[in-house]
Amino acid sequence: MPLDEALAAKILKAVDDGFEAQIEYTKTLVRYPSRRGEEHAVQDFIFQEMRRRGLTMERFAMDEEAIKRHPGGSPFSDTHSKAPIVVGIHRPKAETGRSLIMQGHIDVVPEGPEAMWTSPPYEPRIDGDWFYGRGAGDMKAGHGSMLAVLDAFKAIGMQPASTIYVQSVVEEESTGNGALQCHLRGYKADAAIIPEPSGGKVTRANVGVVWFQIDVAGFPVHVREAGNGQNAIEAAFGVIRKLRELEAQWNEKAKDDAWFKDQAHPINLNVGKIKGGDWASSVPAWCTVDCRIAIYPGEKPETMMRAIEDAVARATREDRFLANNPPRVTWNGFTTEGYVLEPGSEAEAVLARAHERATGETLLPQLIPAYLDGRVYALFDKIPTLNYGPYCELSHGFDERFSIASLKKSTGAMALFVAEWCGLEAI
Amino acid sequence: MPLDEALAAKILKAVDDGFEAQIEYTKTLVRYPSRRGEEHAVQDFIFQEMRRRGLTMERFAMDEEAIKRHPGGSPFSDTHSKAPIVVGIHRPKAETGRSLIMQGHIDVVPEGPEAMWTSPPYEPRIDGDWFYGRGAGDMKAGHGSMLAVLDAFKAIGMQPASTIYVQSVVEEESTGNGALQCHLRGYKADAAIIPEPSGGKVTRANVGVVWFQIDVAGFPVHVREAGNGQNAIEAAFGVIRKLRELEAQWNEKAKDDAWFKDQAHPINLNVGKIKGGDWASSVPAWCTVDCRIAIYPGEKPETMMRAIEDAVARATREDRFLANNPPRVTWNGFTTEGYVLEPGSEAEAVLARAHERATGETLLPQLIPAYLDGRVYALFDKIPTLNYGPYCELSHGFDERFSIASLKKSTGAMALFVAEWCGLEAI
């Protein structure tokens, strides 16, 4: 039942009134350099903030064995985060509404060389409508909006009339195991909403992601003995060329995909990181390359993993160095499927009404050619999963930033969504 | 005047008798991990060892300004060694012979991943005739042989009858500035001998070397926004392809070189080290590549430096990423000329006799397509410079090793050379 007009207006005003505090809270989140494995301090801060708001708190580690057994689990590597997952549980006086999972990830990707930033990446900076900082858009703005929604209800003497799990996870940027651990913990709800920076659209579908590392290691010599093709770094380039061919083949298949058929290049291979050799005058005997590639929703990661192994094998046959020193492929992160928000769900209809009331605009769907934690709830809980949040630019880049106005709108829309989906009751 | 047969035999026997102690001394040298900048401890050890033998000791730093002004100076970078140069000076009772510079470098190149070694690189290991260890061949075996020669004379109650500078230098593997600093210090002699691992041959000519670093840095984004060609790592590959073309052109010119005309590939470009990007799912905005290339003796390094800049400029014109983000070339090591040991010198004739007597074989000349410190004495002191030492394999590689038998022979030959060149007097 659509929300009462007067109540909706009160809620939006409460979001407005609390917005300055919400921005301050977002600044605090950005000040924590919560790179992979370094999310401990910010998770403790969030624990305190949730507890202060009266949520029932849970804090737990990942169960590596259970994740390994689950089809949605990604491999653990040495760099896997050991930071806890923090969940605040809201229980109503009377469970009259529909339950909800709200989730945000607190991990951020590395900031890279600080000299390439206009201002220090973990010192939040506001310039007009832009809020700058590593992780500001992806996704501390959205993360902070979850508590801002609850604060807005409290400001008008209300609270949700159903169970809400507010989940602060890690490993969203590398494996998706944090979200999966919440699922394995047993939290269940009628819908999930994740305020990733979707630019005020709702995500209709996304891709699966596979991470892999290629190690080339072989026999090195003094440069004076070097012949061409005995160089591990340049041998690695040969592997990358084959992987670019693989990427092109997979983009050819876009036309057969129900969702990505109109996208020019939905499958992006990224050669993200490289390291090799020790000395300018020693022929490098080792080179390690970290890559990421995508798969269409509905495809299994194993299909791509076999295709990657085949591409590496082809490169190996064509290169003298590789033929003598076959490269090793390691799965050191994401091996995840994409998901689809099937059109027509009641949850999406509720969000569409909320969005229209908060912004005056029609809610549009969107395709995201990147990993999203929403896949856990869509694929394994089979519940409507709404990926919806503010507008962000240069996520993963230098001078990452989000639009402050867009955050106010998406927070308002999320508050109206929660009010209608869960119902409200007096405190 | 050729050495007296009986004296020569006594000297060779003394070298033999001292050889066990020489190997122990070499082991001690190898145990010091004297990578670039980390030569302080071993230089102090060598200082003590030379002083104990009664040499007059000098220990001094490099004069960066003087090196910069000298045409043979290489640029200083952040990683330039600050370890001292150690020189022991032998003065005879009566200066009746010809003076000599004996020089060895004590710096070693990085060992690389230790897992690729059969045994730990700084734990000397002997297996049959092979002595294993990082720097064992290049050139701690030869370095130790300098003092072994003086020890052999002492064992028979003799000492050289002319001034000898025994110079232990650093920066041989990266700039050649250590040797140049000895020249700037003002040491002068009638010849120089450097027991690099030449495999029992004398070096007729070597190449000059230029080190350079290429920095590609630009505008990064989330992988989902990535188009091809926006990747700093792959853009760097484009630069390397142009540098390989440059290398091919320079090898074409081999046929015009007086010394290297019969060599198939004297000019080796080495792509020695690469580092780029921060995260598998972030498009890399930076990549740094360390390279080394050679030039024919007689060519100025500046000629190659301009050619490198031109090759990088060509790559920049052909690549979208580079066109928007022109790479930076930094000269961060060697900018040195090659040298020639002109045939017919008396010093070489003395070495040939010494070699033949110690080994029973004719001394053969050899071309080395790598940097040698000898260039300082050949080019700037214009004295005969003999690069002559034991047989080594896999210098700069894993499981670097030298032949113990070859070291005994080259030490014997060097002792006979010194005895004839400098003359001997009773202690």
Structural class of chain A: alpha+beta
Alpha-carbon distance between the two ends of chain A = 21 Å
| CATH architecture call of the largest domain in chain A | 3-Layer(aba) Sandwich
User: What is the fold-level CATH name, i.e. the topology of the largest domain in chain A?
Assistant: Aminopeptidase
Number of helices of chain A: 12
Estimated helix fraction of chain A: 25-40%
Give the spatial strand order of the biggest sheet of chain A. Answer: 1-2-7-3-8-16
Using brief descriptors, characterize the structure shown.
homodimer, 427 residues, alpha+beta, Aminopeptidase, Alpha-Beta Plaits, six-stranded mixed sheet, five-stranded antiparallel sheet, 19 strands, 37% helix, elongated, cobalt (chains A, B), ArgE/DapE family deacylase (chains A, B), hydrolase activity (chains A, B), metal ion binding (chains A, B)
